[in-house]
Amino acid sequence: MSEALSPSAGSTPARSLTSESSGAESIISVRDLRKTYQTGKVFVEALRGVDLEVRPGEFVSIVGPSGSGKSTLFHVIGGLTPPTAGQVIVAGRDVSKVGDAGRTRLRRDCVSFVFQKFNLLPNLTAADNIRTALFISGRNQDGFEQDFQDILDLLGIAGRLNHKPSELSGGEQQRVAIARALATRPAILLADEPTGNLDSRNSLAVLGILRNLNDRLGQTILMITHSSEAAEFGHRIVYMSDGRIVDRSALQKPEAI
Amino acid sequence: MIQKLVWENVRFRPVRTLLSILLIAVPVTLILTLIGLSNGFLDDSRRRAEGVGADIIVRPPGSSLASFSGAPLPDKLVTLLSRQPHVTQATGTVVQPVAGFDTLTGIDLAAFDKMSGGFTFVAGHAFQAPNDIIIDTYYAQQRGAKVGSTINIWNRNWNVAGIVEPGKLSHMFVPLGVLQDLTNNPGKVSQIYLKLDDQRNSATVVAGLKKLLPNYTIYTVREWESLISVNNIPMLSTFIHVIIGIGVVIGFAVVSLSMYMAVLQRTREIGILKSLGATKAFVMGLILWEAFVLGLGGTVFGILLSFVSRAVMRMIVPASLPQAIVPTWWPIAGAIAVGAALLGALYPGWLAVRQDPIEALAYE
């Protein structure tokens, strides 16, 4: 997979390993983020003081083993769950200070998700899945195919829009999911193991698409993955372990994993 | 788009949808059948009362619209009433309940024929022997009886002497004297019908009779017909209200269960919608719309089933349980079904709204 999943020639390779970006104002700013889950009487510290800055137009990969807290970070940034402590500012909105309605607005207006399991509505065609996202975000759904032709061509699904998810391959479903995510013109695209359910050929294609979208449209992308090869498609790789952002060297130690 | 989402949801799980619609249809049919039976029975009674050809009905003191308490009126009252001003004819009948809503009526055939214009015989003839019975075509169909058949009522075998067109007083007739003897009411009748020289004299005659027979129940036939309605029969309207209540409870429970299952089945889909930024109101709206569609489908199906129940009644018990189709009750039954459906969807909708999007997305 390492050969198959490498960024295409010409793309900027992933560079540093840090949680910090420099230059323009951050589109994602996370300060001392903590998240504790309660399972019965047990408290689980999923995030233990995470700091992260992401600039507009960046493609950041977050890598870490299971239980490292990368999914929790993804969920907090995406407004799917509130933080326990710390500050999270996404597209100018302080996620740590809003309630459920505020997080719903964040999901509707600022962020879009691409999930490992595609998460398309199974009873709707690809086109209606995209229309549903547009409808929920309050955008016009009529003629989206024309407005969106470039992206549909890039994704290679223009001819598959009238099919239901069960009639599409995994790779096609994920492309539809990406199309749905992009349809609402989100400030940030959050991808959670987007290649986790795909074979290497489709994985390469989807990662290439994400990178292409970032290069061509300047789409900010935050992708979490357990695959360091997939992470290479980002501009920057952030490593997580035990609820913290760590150096790559720390992650390579067996006990850190 | 909401309508599309709801429609696709309903279509996506056709078995659940059809079962829900069928179950919601049950109380709708129950209500419409009961209302149809009440109205059908009363319409039938009205038609048969009108078919007697009388202008005034005299009933015993304290008698109610739907009850017959033996035969307490003396025969000689018939003679007395026949001599009142404007009264051209009087005839008494004995009415005895048989089973369920069926009654056996004793008539003085000659007097009854004169007042009503006579039976129209489809087959057979008038009474020729004490055990002869005349039945109408409804009852003949219900019992599968033909002229010459034997019908057993009160452990007595009656010979079907004639089968007549329906619409005159009763479904079964026997000679007055025979029924009086059989019920130990010799010389007594249940009610007396009066024919006047002119129907326009009805009010005057009723007023005079009320003076003559204080406490007796005396109506013009028109009054009597107008009084035969569900609202004027207290036990019937209470019964209907109870059935409607049961219908609401069944509709509520069915939709609640159905929507609860739907919410469980669609946990991940609700999570997806939430990840797309769907508000609580949107999710609740979706559930309620779906319940509305199921309620509406159940109403339409329930109405269709009420036609089926009428056809079955007509085939099996056309005389005892005449069922009318009462379109004025369709919107009422529909409102009950849809209301119960919406009520039943509230709790599952609330569960859906409260679902944690992360847990919902992880649901398998």
Explain the overall architecture.
The complex is a heterodimer of chains A (257) and B (364). Chain A has helices spanning 70-77, 100-109, 126-136, 144-147, 149-155, 170-183, 200-217, 228-231, 248-252, and strands at residues 28-39, 42-54, 59-63, 85-90, 93-94, 111-114, 188-192, 220-225, 236-241, 244-246. By secondary structure, chain A is an alpha/beta fold. In chain A, the strands form two sheets. Chain A has a six-stranded mixed sheet, sandwiched between helices. A four-stranded antiparallel sheet of chain A has the order 2-1-4-5, covered by helices on one side. In chain A, a hairpin with a 2-residue loop joins strand 9 and strand 10. Chain A is globular. Chain B folds into two domains: 2-43 and 235-361, no CATH class; 61-215, no CATH class. Helix content of chain B is 57%, strand content 16%. In chain B, strands 1, 3, 4, 5, 6, 7, 8, 9, 11 and 12 form a ten-stranded mixed sheet that branches. In chain B, strands 2-10 form a two-stranded antiparallel sheet. The chains are: A alpha/beta (257), B alpha+beta (364). The interface between A and B is medium-sized, with 30 and 25 residues.
